[in-house]
Design a protein that fits this description.
With 85 residues, the chain is of the alpha+beta class. Helix content is 33%, strand content 29%. It has helices at residues 34-41, 48-54, 56-68, and strands spanning 2-3, 8-11, 16-23, 26-33, 78-80. Strands 1, 2, 3, 4 and 5 form a five-stranded mixed beta sheet that branches. The chain is globular and about 35 Å long. The chain starts with a strand and ends in a 5-residue tail after the last strand.
Length: 85
C-alpha cells in the first residue's frame, strides 16, 4: 500500500522539492525539480511550495506510478520528471 503523509520540503541547494511516500511502512523520498515544476505547473521562485500544495494530487499520482513500476534511484528515492506528470 502506498500513502502520502503531508510531508514535503524544498532544498534550495539542489533546487528540488521532496514529497514523502510511505510504501509498506517505509518512507520513500519522491523528488521533483524546479524545472519540472516550472515547466508543468508554471511555478515561480517565490511560490514553489504553494505550487506543490496546489498540484499535490498530480505529483502524488506520478510518484505512485513510478513506485508501482519500481523506478527507484540508486539511493532508494523516486525522481519525478516532467514527462511523468
Amino acid at each position: 500500500m502506498i500513502s502520502f503523509p503531508r510531508l514535503e520540503c524544498w532544498n534550495n541547494m539542489t533546487k528540488m522539492a521532496t514529497v514523502v511516500a510511505e510504501v509498506d511502512k517505509k518512507r520513500v523520498l519522491c523528488r521533483i525539480s524546479y524545472e519540472s515544476l516550472r515547466a508543468k505547473f508554471g511555478a515561480s521562485d517565490d511560490k514553489l511550495m504553494q505550487s506543490i500544495a496546489q498540484h499535490r494530487t498530480d505529483i502524488q499520482e506520478a510518484a505512485r506510478k513510478l513506485i508501482e513500476r519500481d523506478y527507484y534511484e540508486e539511493d532508494g528515492s523516486v525522481l519525478i520528471q516532467t514527462d511523468d506528470l
